Amino acid sequence: LHAQCSQRLRSPLMDLCHVPPTREKGWYLALMAPNVKGPNYAWLDPSRLYCHPQGLQDCVGDLLQPFQGDPIDMVAGIDAMGFILGAAAAAVLRKGFLAIRKAGHLCVQTLAQPYTDYSGREKVMEVRTDAISPGLRILLVDQWVETGGTMRAAIQLVERLGGVVAAPPSRPAGVAAICIEDSEGGRWIRERYKCAHCVPPSLQPRFDRHQ
């Protein structure tokens, strides 16, 4: 990996060639950058992680590990950062990818679902109606689950179209995100759906406190 890294991917601020000798689950979380722009932004920026070749690969691998052997028909990613992890997961699984969009971007027939995002803003999410047939098993992917409102809206869209996100006890697909916080909405999702995330248990309290 070191020999193949391009010089353009190196800078004093971002060494994208360094890989620790022992790659424990979540090692790549240290690549993420803290918020330096104030309360109108998310507390942490994972996009730096995606620039690291091995970090991105291991992140996607950890997200998919709990679903090994599960019958997944399609991966759906949530606008916008969920597109990155979702498309990467779909490529690894050799499955199709469905974009769940913020309202107003799709020029085809859609189903809409209002929701409140992590910042408390009221929004609307939509999905095309011709991609999900009844019984289709969907793995839903987003970058982060903080309050759970965005992911819950995506789940509602899939299920309203007859798709299956998870159906205990068989639980054929589910929800994946870098972090699922221990919020009321996060717990609601964990209790009802098979979930995968990348934060080790020892670090989860710090992520829940945004530290």
TrEMBL record:
One of its GO terms (biological process) is purine ribonucleoside salvage. Keywords: Cytoplasm, Glycosyltransferase, Purine salvage, Transferase. GO terms for molecular function: adenine phosphoribosyltransferase activity. It comes from the Eukaryota. Pathway: Purine metabolism; AMP biosynthesis via salvage pathway; AMP from adenine: step 1/1. Its EC number is 2.4.2.7. GO terms for cellular component: cytoplasm. It is found in: Cytoplasm. It is an enzyme of class 2 (transferase). It catalyses: AMP + diphosphate = 5-phospho-alpha-D-ribose 1-diphosphate + adenine. Residues 71-162 form the Phosphoribosyltransferase domain. Its main location: cytoplasm. SUPFAM superfamilies: PRTase-like. InterPro entries: Adenine_PRTase, PRTase-like, PRTase_dom. Pfam families: Pribosyltran. Belongs to the purine/pyrimidine phosphoribosyltransferase family. Homodimer. This is adenine phosphoribosyltransferase.
